[in-house]
UniProtKB/TrEMBL annotation:
Subcellular location: Mitochondrion inner membrane
Assigned protein family: Belongs to the cytochrome c oxidase subunit 2 family.
An annotated GO cellular component: mitochondrial inner membrane
Official protein name in the record: Cytochrome c oxidase subunit 2
All residue ranges annotated as the Cytochrome oxidase subunit II transmembrane region profile domain in the record: 1-91
GO molecular function: copper ion binding; cytochrome-c oxidase activity; oxidoreductase activity
Length: 230
């Protein structure tokens, strides 16, 4: 989760988020270099005492500032396209989970397990226990096995929502009447928090997302217990 005064992105919990962080750093360095070059040119232009009223154009300068931006765009576009294709790649998922947005809570269905479905509501502030986070903790977590490809199907029952977990690099719009999908792999165990990222009404900020990554054996035990309770 994010912490106070945090400037950077959250630590990656999936290979996709690691790629996004690397791309962010790559693009940021290019921005810094361009900004430094532009500031230097402005400084030189303002402070120089050299003038030549007979110079009307320069083919060399025209060529440089036409070709150089094209090269920079290529350096940004290729890594960006690579990540876009990685985000759309869904090959033989080990688990499929359906997430449905409601005003104002999430419901989850595990397609590979019969009768494994539940609603996830935000824990009210008065019911929080020590160590739990206000506006982020849910009464039922979405539990997934780590190091296993998970396919997530997202939709909504009423209005637009958005299922977002920054540490996983996942943000999927939940649109009524439409089924969107994405995939992720949890690279380490832990509890990862997210929130609805599409303004959906008065309680938009009160429908958190909590994903818990556990080893496969623990996930099997949890799923068996949940089906028995159902």
């Amino acid at each position: 989760m994010a912490h106070p005064l945090q400037l950077g992105l959250q630590n990656a919990a999936s290979p996709l988020m690691e790629e996004l962080i690397h791309f962010h750093d790559h693009a940021l360095m290019i921005v810094f270099l361009i900004s430094t070059l532009v500031l230097y040119i402005i400084k030189v232009t303002v402070t120089t005492t050299l003038t030549d009223k007979l110079v009307l154009d320069s083919q060399m300068i025209e060529t440089i500032w036409t070709i150089l931006p094209g090269i920079i765009l290529i350096l940004i576009a290729f890594p960006s396209l690579r990540i876009l294709y990685l985000m759309d790649e869904i090959n033989n998922p080990h688990l499929t989970v359906k997430a449905f947005g409601h005003q104002w809570y999430w419901s989850y269905e595990y397609s590979d397990y019969q009768d494994l479905a539940f609603d996830s509501y935000m824990v009210p502030t008065n019911d929080l226990t020590p160590g739990q986070f206000r506006l982020l903790e849910a009464d039922s977590r979405m539990v997934t096995p780590m190091e296993s490809p998970v396919r997530l199907l997202v939709s909504a029952d009423d209005v637009l929502h958005s299922w977002t977990v920054p540490a996983l690099g996942v943000k999927v719009d939940a649109v009524p009447g439409r089924l969107n999908q994405t995939t992720f792999i949890m690279s380490r165990p832990g509890v990862f928090f997210g929130q609805c990222s599409e303004i959906c009404g008065a309680n938009h900020s009160f429908m958190p997302i909590v994903v818990e990554a556990v080893p496969v054996q623990y996930f099997e035990d949890w799923s068996t217990l949940m089906m028995e309770e159902a």
